[in-house]
Specification:
Distance between the termini: 22 Å
Number of strands: 4
Structural class: alpha+beta
Strand content: 15-25%
Order of helices and strands: EEEHHE
Shape: elongated
């Protein structure tokens, strides 16, 4: 996803896969335990009701 201002100062959004989000762990960056802790701390489904969480 990318967001920028166009020549007329309008916001342009490029989201080839849509704006519905997916929250999933990145196993190359964090352990499963750290991922669960982040999920509990950030509470993405409360912040973004349409987000889909994949554990």
């Amino acid at each position: 996803m990318a967001i920028r201002l166009d020549a007329h100062d309008h916001i342009a959004v490029c989201a080839p896969h849509g704006l519905d989000g997916i929250w999933r762990p990145n196993p190359t960056r964090v352990s499963p335990e750290n991922s669960r802790q982040r999920l509990a701390r950030h509470r993405p489904t409360q912040r973004w009701p349409r987000v889909r969480v994949i554990t």
